[in-house]
Amino acid sequence: LQIFLGALAFSFFAKGFSGSYMKSMSSQIERRFEISSSIVGIIDGSFEIGNLMIMVLVSYLGPRVHRPKVIAVGCLIMSLGAFLSVMPQFLMGRYNYERVTVTVDNSSTSVSACSPASSVGHPVTDATETPSAMKNFGCEKTTNSYLWLFVLMGNLLRGIGEAPVMPLGFSYIDDFSKEENSAFYIGLVRSSGMFGPTLGFLLGSFCASLWVDIGVVDIDAISINPKDTRWVGAWWLGLLICGAVNFVASLPFWFLPYSLTKEGGNEKLKISHLPVQGDHCKIDSPVQPQIKVYSIYLSIADFLPALKKLFGNPVFLVYIFLTILQYNSLVGMITYETKFMEQQFNVSVAKAIFLIGRYL
């Protein structure tokens, strides 16, 4: 049980680490792919979409599957999602900041970097003149790239992979620990996971201070600094680290058994079936479980009645609504706070991410 607690604590750290890093890089992804903030919001929300796709079903089928191995598969999927998000960096070529739109006078007005006024060093103040100026001087419109879909799919996979970690991990602890120790163990795991978001933002601050094509171009030849609105940090570098951390987090779970000796007891417990109605569970002898397709099919058939009964509990519904309100404010703030601080207080994105990391 102690090995499982350590592995689960590290997996909580890994998922918080990669999740916070991804949120810290939202403004960098927006600039690199030249997409709007609304699309960035869709990319960020794809994680929750992937989570919702299988969270309830995985939680319901938890006692009928090999929970440590399912958690291991989830960590691998999170690792795959992080690596998939990096792919556009190697498909798009080098980043050319000279043709990217720039912000004038710290406002929402954007003009093309190849417009005549900006080329001679005079800022353009009338945004309505930009299209005609671009047409007269032969500026080419940047072709929209849809490689950001790789980032969206990678974030979706991360959400799918994270779904089994918390419900299956906590149920495993609850089944094989003493009743009086269960809450303490869960608190330790969640406390360990809180280090992940802080370190994720600190890593985001470091990567945002590095040029996106680090190791490929000469840094001394770049004429802009991290405070420039066209600056793009090495957003992909941290995702490689996050993918590696999630991969390492999956390794211990492959070697953990289906069931453990009950803490303080001498018998192994195996929950083979969790009935929809009733308050008891079947306790079987310590035999290696054989997951049958037919039994899982019957469990899925009972899923909707169990869900209907659960949502008939008013206390549970109130808790759900309170949780939605809590995360609704937190997620929106974290996603766009770096961009807001950068534009309103004229600080580099690396410093903005660092300040958020200190706050967390």
Automatic annotation (TrEMBL):
Topology of this chain in the membrane: Multi-pass membrane protein
Location of this chain's protein in the cell: Cell membrane; Membrane
Gene Ontology BP terms: monoatomic ion transport; sodium-independent organic anion transport
Pfam families: OATP
Protein family: Belongs to the organo anion transporter (TC 2.A.60) family.
Gene: Slco1c1_3
The keyword S-adenosyl-L-methionine belongs to this UniProt entry's keyword annotation: no
Organism: Alca torda
Keyword annotations from UniProtKB, A to Z: Disulfide bond, Ion transport, Membrane, Transmembrane, Transmembrane helix, Transport
Lineage: Eukaryota, Metazoa, Chordata, Craniata, Vertebrata
Origin superkingdom: Eukaryota
Record domain Major facilitator superfamily (MFS) profile: where: 4-360
GO molecular function: bile acid transmembrane transporter activity; sodium-independent organic anion transmembrane transporter activity
UniProt-listed PANTHER family: ORGANIC ANION TRANSPORTER (PTHR11388), SOLUTE CARRIER ORGANIC ANION TRANSPORTER FAMILY MEMBER (PTHR11388:SF83)
NCBIfam families according to UniProt: oat (TIGR00805)
GO cellular-component term (any): basolateral plasma membrane
Entry's transmembrane regions: 35-58, 70-91, 199-222, 234-256, 316-336
Name of the protein described by the UniProt record: Solute carrier organic anion transporter family member
